[in-house]
Amino acid sequence: MTARKPSAQAPAPPGTAPDRRIVTLPDLTGRARPVPEPGSAAFWNGLAAGRLVLAACPSCSFRTHLPAAGCPSCPSAVLEQAEVAASGVLYSCTVCYREFGPGLTPPYIVGLVDLDEAPSCRLVTNVVNAVIADVRPGMPVRGVFSSAPPYLFFEPA
Amino acid sequence: MAAAAAITGIGYARIARDSERSALDLAVEASRNAIADAGLASHDVDGLVTFPERTSPPTSFQGPPIESVQRALGLAGLAYWQSFGTGPGQFGAVLAAVHAAAAGAARHILAVRAHKRQERAYLPIRGDGGGLAFDEDAYTMPYGAAGGAARLAPWAARHMHEYGTTQEHLGSVVLTCRDYAARNPRAYWHEPLTMADYLSSPWVSTPFKRLDCDYPVEGAVALIISAAGGTAGLASRPAWVAAGAQAAGPGLSWTQWPDMTRMASWQVAERLWSRTHLRPADVDVAELYDGFSWLAICWLEDMRFVAKGEGGPFFAEGRARLDGDLPVCTDGGQLGMGRIHGFGKIAQAVLQLRGEAGPNQKPGATVALACAGGGPQCAALLLTGERT
């Protein structure tokens, strides 16, 4: 992918004036890379293939993207996999003007996304391809996959 | 049931922006002050708890190793000791000491939290030099949301979205704390602050401006927790633990939380108020946690002092000031006194109950609340001047 940094050197607008800059898909160099483990490999391998794959209970409606071992909602000892659409609603967000982690270039937007097809799964992400000031809770968003490393960003739907 | 334990000693180390002192030195100063405040000698102290647990290699978030504190203070013959991890909030160690004293495991337990400046500790430390992200960090760290302001800010943003809490509401928390701090000689900030100053200050992570984040300082606070049977003949007036509670809400995750407009403090309140005959209206001062300004608004609401959404206006209307309905963060809080990370909340509550809070004294205070933590890590203690 083409890495484009937003106007990273420009200062944030003073006071509470809206920040009308556009955040695009960032340069991913230096970001922490997820380490897949047996309980979470399907999720990470899915992202690498451009698919959103959750752990899913065959007996009840439980879904999770996080590491799991059996179903926490029912006695089922096994979890299967279920692909869901990478679309959801932005539950909340914050615009970061300093870097809270390696490889991050401010400003960037941290978003919390509730998936349309698995509303109990809340994904932490960066909202991209958006005017900073227009990103608000309640906004519909859709996934933007990154294969290596496996990340999932979201943009306004 | 009569209180089984009391806070019988408090001690501070001098708060400084750059102390050029070790965390151990700060812990020892605060601890010696607390032991003397209670009228005890080192050999009377038979319990020791510290927070947070020291790892190797350490992070700048952590204080000194518990072994160093024990040795530096010459605490021979400990009957109870424990270094506590991150949950439930900063009071996990203090509540455990209360439980241990009540159960008879020890008679006088020293609890100490020493704090060096840790700006970089808001950045994730775990992983392979920042290159790899393990476990639940793998889902947050790549997006710059693993800790600190970026982890909590979405909670505040959602609260603003649902309840109309405003930037000025957050600012009024900061101004309230600065007002108390100006009258507290221990506090770092003494200069007055205006809303215009606040609104023109730089962003950190919206809706948090730099002034919404507690101020990085170095210092320490120590407490002596005594069993009820050990309080006779002490030099200080005990502050009785009428009730304590800790909660994780629906889970321990900062992200998988259904309703981020309320924190584990909501469940802390349910538990705390079920364990005492006292009611929120009985509280004279509330030393709410203010690691970020919005935390104080959420704690105020979650502890049932006001309805959800009314916390911001409560501060904006001046009702949290000394002459208001409920004085809050009366030492200046961490926003005004400096980030000493929770234990200061209990020390200030004790000072209020003793009538030793100086210009910030709430006249005749008999019930004081101390709270610490945020998100899924919350705990509170309700203290009284008389044993109830």
Element order of chain B: H for helix, E for strand: EHEHEHEEHHHEEEEHEHHHHEE
Binned, the helix content of chain B reads 25-40%
Largest interface between protein chains, with number of residues from each side? A-B, 46 and 48 residues
* CATH class (first level) name of the largest domain in chain B: Alpha Beta
Helix/strand-derived category of chain A reads mainly beta
What is the end-to-end distance of chain A? 20 Å
Q: Describe the strand arrangement of the main beta sheet of chain A, using strand numbers.
A: 8-7-6-10-11
The largest beta-sheet of chain B arranges its strands as 3-2-4-8-1-9-12-11-10
**Count of discrete domains of chain A:** 1
Radius of gyration of chain A: 17 Å
Keywords:
heterodimer; A: 157 residues; mainly beta; 5-stranded antiparallel sheet; 5% helix; 34% strand; disordered N terminus; B: Peroxisomal Thiolase, Chain A, domain 1; Peroxisomal Thiolase, Chain A, domain 1; 2 domains; 9-stranded mixed sheet; two-stranded antiparallel ribbon; 11 helices; 12 strands
Architecture overview:
The complex is a heterodimer of chains A (157) and B (388). Chain A is mostly beta strands and 157 residues long. Helices cover 5% and strands 34% of the residues of chain A. Chain A has 1 helix and 11 strands. A 5-stranded antiparallel sheet of chain A has the order 8-7-6-10-11. A 3-stranded antiparallel sheet of chain A has the order 4-3-5, covered by helices on one side. In chain A, strands 1-9 form a two-stranded antiparallel sheet. The radius of gyration of chain A is 17 Å and the shape is elongated. The two termini of chain A are 20 Å apart. The N terminus of chain A is likely disordered. By secondary structure, chain B is an alpha/beta fold. Chain B folds into 2 domains: 138 residues, Peroxisomal Thiolase, Chain A, domain 1; 222 residues, Thiolase/Chalcone synthase (Peroxisomal Thiolase, Chain A, domain 1). Helices cover 30% and strands 19% of the residues of chain B. Chain B is built from 11 helices and 12 strands. In chain B, strands 3-2-4-8-1-9-12-11-10 form a 9-stranded mixed sheet. In chain B, strands 6-7 form a two-stranded antiparallel sheet. In chain B, α1 packs across α2 and α5 packs across α8. The longest helix of chain B is centred in the N-terminal third of the chain and has 16 residues. In chain B, 60% of the residues are buried. About 3% of the residues of chain B have low confidence. Chains A and B meet through β2, β6, β7 and β8 of A and β5, α4 and β6 of B. β2 of chain A pairs parallel with β5 of chain B, so a sheet runs across the interface.
